[in-house]
Amino acid sequence: MREFSIGQVEQSTSSGGRMICLYQILVRDVPPPVCCESYGIRITDLDSGENEEVPDITIFPERIQALAQMLLQGGVTPCTLRDVVDDWL
């Protein structure tokens, strides 16, 4: 599996601390007979090391790019990633 960083966001936590989240697109090669790429997302809190990933969301690169930009702009955290992706789907 390959991964590509698309950005990071620093934000305040509810307890007054800070959190820096790294956003990555995951790419998995789907074997024959399909022969395509499947895309997912990973978000990592760089301060605590907490991360969450949702693999195999779509096979369309433009869709994963749109989702990734939405997550980045919205400052989605690892603990809310799955809920946001579920709503997006």
Walkthrough of the structure:
The structure is a single chain. This protein is α+β, with helices and mostly antiparallel strands. The chain has helices spanning 61-74, 81-88; strands spanning 2-12, 18-30, 36-45, 51-58. The chain has a four-stranded antiparallel sheet with strand order 1-2-3-4, with helices on one face. Strand 1 and strand 2 form a beta hairpin. The longest helix has 14 residues, at 61-74. The chain is elongated and about 50 Å long.
Identify the overall geometry. elongated
Rg from alpha-carbon coordinates: 14 Å
Helix/strand/pairing category: alpha+beta
Helix segment tally: 2
Outline the low-pLDDT stretches. Answer: none
